[in-house]
């Protein structure tokens, strides 16, 4: 029922609404209306008006002497005028890009309290534990870095670093070996963050693997040529 009433009443309510709004605005321009006051403020003002009516009467009286005194008041500034600097000193210019650290905002350069570890430290002992889990154990890590043993065990169980796995098929052609070399160079630039499985020395490993595959390929070709 309410929706039906609103649909019927809306055209009458909005009839000539723009002209009516302009009339209200024009009326407000000609008639000054003070801002509404809080009811408690109205009570206080009415009480003061009743107790001291002469104070409010003075508001309606124009003081000619005060107006004349204001006309004689002048403000003169005596501060020295600031002269523009004529020095043309060249500002330092650095054209080198800002090099961010590997960990970005997560990298810290301030002392870490005992019982805490930086993200870089966590990456390092994760990589060492992966390469040599028998020697780099949770107890040795906790003792070396003064960490809680239970927390170190949780970190070793639930967090791993990236593993770069290089299959033998990646060494068959020169273009693929070049791509592998680029990946290995990236791994070198992030020590501790990327682990290459089973490769203790990256450059020697890729060379040995490529040489082994090439020798196997040449032997198979020689064998097939001899049979023919």
UniProtKB/TrEMBL annotation:
InterPro entries: NDUFAF4. GO terms for biological process: mitochondrial respiratory chain complex I assembly. GO terms for cellular component: mitochondrion. Pfam families: UPF0240. PANTHER family: NADH DEHYDROGENASE [UBIQUINONE] 1 ALPHA SUBCOMPLEX ASSEMBLY FACTOR 4, UPF0240 PROTEIN. This is Protein NDUFAF4. It comes from Biomphalaria pfeifferi.
């Amino acid at each position: 029922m309410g929706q039906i009433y609103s649909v019927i009443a809306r055209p009458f309510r909005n009839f000539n609404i723009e002209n009516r709004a302009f009339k209200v605005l024009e009326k407000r321009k000609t008639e000054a209306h003070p801002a509404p006051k809080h009811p408690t403020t109205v009570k206080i003002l009415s009480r003061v008006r009743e107790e001291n009516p002469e104070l409010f009467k003075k508001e309606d009286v124009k003081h000619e002497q005060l107006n004349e005194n204001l006309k004689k008041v002048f403000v003169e500034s005596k501060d020295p005028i600031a002269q523009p600097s004529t020095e043309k000193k060249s500002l330092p210019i650095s054209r080198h890009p800002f090099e961010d650290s590997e960990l970005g905002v997560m990298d810290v350069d301030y002392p870490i309290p005992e019982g805490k570890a930086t993200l870089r430290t966590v990456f390092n002992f994760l990589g060492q534990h992966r390469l040599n889990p028998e020697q780099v154990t949770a107890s040795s890590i906790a003792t070396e870095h003064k960490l809680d043993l239970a927390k170190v065990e949780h970190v070793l169980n639930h967090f791993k670093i990236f593993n770069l796995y290089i299959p033998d098929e990646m060494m068959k052609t020169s273009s693929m070996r070049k791509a592998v070399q680029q990946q290995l160079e990236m791994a070198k630039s992030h020590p501790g963050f990327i682990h290459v499985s089973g490769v203790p020395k990256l450059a020697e490993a890729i060379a040995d693997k490529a040489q082994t595959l090439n020798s196997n390929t040449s032997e198979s070709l020689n064998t097939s040529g001899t049979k023919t």
